[in-house]
Every structure is written in structure tokens, then in C-alpha cells.
Amino acid sequence: MYKVILSALIAVAVTSCAPSATVSTPFGTATVPLQSRTADPDLVTPPGYDNTAECASAKISYQGRLEYTVPAKFPEPTRNVTVNRDNYRLLCTDGSFVSTANTLTVKQPTLAAALARFVPEAYGPADSFSGTGALDFTTPGQVTFVPRYRDVPSGIVIAAQQPGTALTPLVFDGKASVVTYDPTKPLDLYARKTQDNSSVPWARLTLDPNGTVTVYREAPFPAQ
To answer: Taking 60 as the threshold, does the pLDDT of residue 65 lie above it?
Structure first.
């Protein structure tokens, strides 16, 4: 009841040309604005909002969380925001960050720029014995796995593949290899765990040279 009364009082005090409905309250009737049907709950910033600063600071952290900074605007101080849900969209002038139930797609002007939006361990698989690590794309045309704490996790398998090529092991049997690839063609990385104490937060990564990185939370591991 209190929510209805508050909504009614706000509606009486504010005149709006937005779609509305008339509701009954203990004080009589009042006109209450309705939410626009075009409103998108997945949008991180509303249409028309200057999100330049948010886009410039946006990063993908562990398991696909979106992190960005809202600049200070008196009297509100600078805020660090984490979007911790499956479905979200941050649309920028030079790219986008779009997450759904099974995929996360980051688009930037270049592939290097898209990869730079991921923190080092955003999708680092791990196991309870060996800790975690990160995929390293520092050298163009090469990818490897770098353990962050101790050894290469022994309970995971990661393999790389490009169109028309064989599946190549990147992480296998507790060892990491350097895989070379053609940077002018798409690259797929597949991962799965081989031990119950292991964790792999993604099943497939697709790197497209047009500046797109797509993360699949679920995907089949290819047959050899």
C-alpha cells in the first residue's frame, strides 16, 4: 500500500507526457506514468546518455563480469561498477560488450583492442592443486597459457583450431605449449576439465581478426 501511495504522490507532483494509467488510492485517484515498452533492462547505460567514460574504462573480469568506472559529477564521487549478471549490453561508439545466457561478445576496432578488454585471468581455468593462469596473446600469431601461481593445471585440456587445420593441444597433461596461428583467420580455443577438482568457466573462445572476441559458456569439445 505504501508503494502505491508513494507512486501516486509522485505522479501528482510531476507532469509527464509519457504513457500513464489511473490508479485508485486511499486519497482518491492519481495518474501514474507507465514504463516505456521500448525500455531495455539489459542496457547498462540508457539511450541518450554520454557513456564515453564508461566505455573507455570497461573491462571483462572473472567469469564475464563487466566492470567500468562512472566519473565523478558533483555531488556524486567516482564509482566503480560491476555488472554481475548473464544478460547485459554496453553499446559504445567504437564497439560493444554484449552478454547473453551462453555467450559474451566484445567488439572493438581491432582484435588486439578487444583482447585488451579482458583482465589477464578473466577466463583462466584452474584446479585446486595448481592454482590458475591466463591465456597469453602478447606475441601476434601466437598463444600460450601462463600459470599465475604454481604449475599448469593438470585437470584441464585446452586446444586451438583454425578453419581447415587439425586440433592442436595448448594445455594438456599438466603442460602448456605455444601454438602459432594465422592472425588473418579466425581462431577457436576449446576447453574442458578432466578432473572434478578443476574449473573451466568457458567452453570455447572465438577470436575474429575483425576485432571480435566471442566467449561461449557451453560448447562441445571437437573430436580429434
So the answer is: yes
Same domain, 135 and 209: yes
Please report whether residue 17 resides in a domain.
yes
Cβ distance 60 to 69 under 8 Å?
no
Q: By C-alpha distance, which of 55, 26, 63, 27 is closest to 202?
A: 63
pLDDT value of residue 125: 59
| Cβ atoms of residues 111 and 206 within 8 Å | no
| Residue 171 near residue 152, CB atoms below 8 Å | yes
Cα-based distances in Å from 60 to 55, 96, 117, 176, 197: 12, 12, 6, 24, 25
Do 148 and 80 belong together in one domain? no
SS3 content of the chain, % helix, strand, coil (to 5): 10, 40, 50
Instruction: Give the residue, 127 or 211, on which the prediction is more confident.
Output: 211
Q: Pick from 198, 189, 124: which is nearest to 155 by CA?
A: 198
Confidence of residue 128 (pLDDT cuts 50, 70, 90): very low
Question: What is the extent of the structural domain holding 84?
Answer: 40-88
- Amino acid letter for position 157: V
Q: pLDDT by residue (tens digit) across 22-53?
A: 444 443 444 444 344 346 889 999 888 999 99
SS3 193: strand
